Amino acid sequence: MGGHDVNRRETLTACVAVATTLTGCISTESTGETVTNRGSGTTEGTEPTGETAEATDWPAAFGTAGNTCFSTDSGPTDGTVKWTFSREELQPRAPCMADGTVYAVSTVGEPGSEQMRVFALDVATGDLRWEQTVYDYGPLGRWSSAPTVADGIVYVVTDDSYLDGTGLVALDTADGEILWNLSGAAGAHYGGPVALDGRIHTITEPSDGESALRAFEPDGSLAWENPLAEQALSAYGIAGGANSLAVTDVTGVYGLDMATGETRWEIPSDDFENRIQLPPVVAGNTVFVATGATSMTRERTELDSTYRLYGLDIANGSQRWQTSMSNGDEPAAPAGPLAVADDAVFVVQAPISDGSHELVAYERASGTVRSRQALSFVPNLTSPTFAGGEVYVPAEFGIVTEDGTLAESLELSAAQQTNWGLPVFDGQAAVVTREGITLLQ
Who wins on pLDDT, 402 or 319? Predict the structure, then answer.
């Protein structure tokens, strides 16, 4: 159909996600981590996050507007391939899923003449519903962000910071028709645009204006804008919840009123011991932020560095708690974005000694270490996903079981999958493979 190839196989030889069950994350241990708690005038409470993906949807890069990588639905059980969508020269980003359709952004074509396209696939069969070209790269092809789906619209940011082209594109989910687009480069933040309260939020930098966080109505009209800082923004992420937005940027961490865009609070980058290079997570009334020169940019952490995980009050930015990320006396940097469940924060960490990785669970309310699990075959850049009581972590060659070892010889295209949440829904997972886009069950 349409020249594409949908492959169905009993076993997977091109990719897999990774599952580490929660049973390995419920014991509490005594560690050398330093945990600091500070009163904020409000309490986190025991309420659920309110930022979970719907039971059969994963409509954004990290599953939710809060970037929680958290779903109440179950994930795949044995890694059986339901279908694979492939096409020559297809280079997809991590997909998302909403209302029975898997959406993915990909470059197509030979170097120097790539096109950026959005693909819509039937989740039941892998059949192509539609595809739409949203940008002709020419000789300077660049990756795009992951798509975001809300209220019948697919939003895509073209990461064309060095090109005078489209910054934000809105497409009809029914047929891929381009509803509107905004000219101007988009900020290169992780995860893509954030949809909340009927608006879409992203960093844009028009050729005739300054870079700013901007909120747009579904028709593309501007609702509000906030430049946040005097210098150009290079936001690492945007997250929303509790009538607020949180932004992590090279200049610091910001909290904004979602309705007006007004800055409620800000924490300058100088107030942190190390750089912020990850998107924030908003769950309940807390913003979770990890600092450090992560293994997204360096293979090993630095001996004299301090890497910390913070819980901040979303209302005023005050610190609820902080904890150092380490393995005994050795610092350990986060290997990628966080996952936040009702009672725990999950981080894949990379200790300095041998470049190994471990999955660490922190108490959501206090930041104390709940458990840690060694992981095998995990690349330098990886992010956990929590779904149906299990933690899924992409690995290089297959499924990692709860004891941290390789369970099944199934290859993974880690470089294209691991910096995003793993889309989990209805007992399935959509992953990027060397062959294209694969649905596991």
Answer: 319
DSSP state at residue 259: T
**CA dist list (Å): 58 to 118, 257, 423:** 16, 25, 6
Q: Read off the pLDDT of residues 378-398 as tens digits, 9 standing for 90 and up.
A: 777 778 889 888 888 876 654
Cα-Cα-Cα-Cα dihedral sign, residues 89, 93, 95, 96: negative
Residues 6+ apart with CB under 8 A from 207: 164, 183, 184, 185
Task: Tell the burial category of 207 from Cβ atoms under 10 Å away from its Cβ (0-12, 13-18, 19+).
Answer: exposed
Contact present, 283 and 340 (Cβ < 8 Å):
yes
Q: Tell me which CATH code domain 5-440 carries.
A: 2.140.10.10
Strands (E), 114-221: 114-122, 128-138, 148-150, 153-157, 166-172, 178-183, 185-186, 194-196, 199-205, 212-216
Residues counted in the chain: 441
Parse the chain into domains and list their residue ranges: 5-440
- Spatial separation of the C-alpha atoms in residues 114 and 187, rounded to whole Å: 21
With a CB cutoff of 8 Å and minimum separation 6, the contacts of 165 are 135, 158, 183, 185
* pTM for the model: 0.85
Most confident among 63-67, 324-328, 385-389, 411-415 (mean pLDDT): 63-67
Residue among 157, 115, 113, 120 at smallest CA distance from 139: 113
Produce one character per residue of 35-45: b if its CB has 16 or more CB atoms within 10 Å, e if not.
Answer: beeeebeeebe
How far apart are alpha carbons 97 and 4 in whole angstroms? 19
Q: Is 338 helix (H, G, I), strand (E, B) or coil?
A: coil
Coil, strand or helix at 269: helix
- Give a three-class secondary structure readout of 364-423: CCCCCEEEEEEECCCCCCCCCEEECCEEECCCCCEEECCCCCEEEECCCCHHHHCCCCCC
Which pairs count as long-range contacts for 379-382, CB under 8 Å and 24+ apart, including other chains? 379/414, 379/415, 379/418, 380/295, 380/296, 380/299, 380/335, 380/350, 380/355, 381/295, 381/296, 381/335, 381/336, 381/414, 381/415, 381/418, 381/419, 382/335, 382/336, 382/348, 382/357, 382/414, 382/418, 382/419
Max intra-chain CA distance, the chain: 60
